[in-house]
């Protein structure tokens, strides 16, 4: 099993030469964050910075829509990538309305920590997987959407960022302390690393990257993805 350090080294090499999207630590590709500041009251989640955790080696791929749909959409994202925040807030809701809720596609989330932030790309991914593990895929996608909508509430926010991860988890019915412990301790690193390897083998070099039935879309915008889905449905 490759370690987080191995993933970081590979991700740094992949970032060279890419023209758009998030590509490496601290590199948002010139875009603005899609997150918006939240002023909500946060829980004070008391977890040490390097907690002892039991690592989880495998977890099912988060899926929404009809799991048996004829067309599969795979999205590779980094929780600290501002382009991923824009994709989540502007593109995904349209895909949900047009294709996911009607059951036309199987939509999968895959983690691909470039990392844009060596801390938060991993911490937020671990928190989201902890929510999935404790609750279900629906809660995972709701949690993920909330994080991307308020990305600046955790990226670079220090201890307050972890309080935010825990507060959003608590809102959904997950144990805030357990989620923050997973985020700080890397409990789901093996799951995230496996996703990264899948993406690397498929040719992912930046985030967000979207595939429709295994074919990479030209860009992660709604029109390109919609066109690819329609082509796949009519094939």
UniProtKB/TrEMBL annotation:
This is Protein-disulfide isomerase. GO terms for molecular function: isomerase activity; oxidoreductase activity. Belongs to the thioredoxin family. DsbA subfamily. InterPro entries: Thioredoxin-like_fold (IPR012336), Thioredoxin-like_sf (IPR036249). Residues 25-46 are annotated as: Disordered. It comes from the Archaea. Residues 60-231 form the Thioredoxin-like fold domain. Keywords: Disulfide bond, Electron transport, Isomerase, Oxidoreductase, Redox-active center, Signal, Transport. It comes from Halarchaeum rubridurum.
């Amino acid at each position: 099993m490759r370690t987080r350090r191995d993933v970081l080294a590979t991700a740094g090499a992949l970032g060279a030469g890419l023209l758009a999207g998030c590509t490496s630590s601290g590199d948002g590709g010139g875009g603005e964050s899609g997150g918006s500041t939240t002023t909500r009251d946060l829980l004070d989640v008391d977890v040490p910075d390097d907690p002892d955790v039991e690592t989880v080696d495998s977890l099912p791929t988060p899926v929404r829509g009809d799991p048996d749909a004829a067309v599969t959409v795979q999205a590779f994202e980094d929780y600290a990538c501002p382009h991923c925040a824009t994709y989540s807030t502007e593109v995904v809701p349209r895909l949900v309305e047009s294709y996911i809720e009607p059951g036309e596609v199987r939509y999968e989330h895959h983690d691909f920590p470039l990392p844009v932030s060596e801390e938060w790309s991993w911490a937020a991914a671990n928190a989201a997987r902890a929510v999935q593990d404790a609750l279900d895929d629906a809660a995972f996608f709701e949690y993920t959407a909330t994080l991307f909508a308020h990305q600046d509430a955790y990226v670079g926010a220090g201890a307050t960022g972890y309080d935010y991860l825990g507060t959003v988890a608590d809102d959904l019915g997950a144990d805030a302390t357990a989620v923050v412990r997973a985020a700080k301790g890397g409990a789901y690193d093996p799951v995230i690393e496996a996703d990264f390897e899948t993406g690397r083998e498929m040719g992912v070099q930046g985030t967000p990257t979207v595939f429709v039935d295994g074919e990479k879309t030209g860009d992660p915008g709604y029109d390109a993805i919609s066109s690819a889905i329609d082509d796949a449905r009519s094939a």
